[in-house]
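Posting for a labmate who doesn't have an account.
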Amino acid sequence: MRALAELAARNDGYHRVPLTDALIAAAAAEHGGLAVLHRDAHFDRLSEPLAFHSVPLPGP
């Protein structure tokens, strides 16, 4: 989970992202930039330092 260590080392507030969101994003990034469908802005933020596609779903 190299990606989680890199996020923790940053001073941009990434340490405040819920661990479950970070694990999902890191797994998507580790497996070749998979897309993550979501309704959670944390994934948009995590897509900046990690190599995955963040796809927000429409809805409430």
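Reply:
Got it, the structure tokens are right above this. Residues 19-30 form the longest helix (12 residues).
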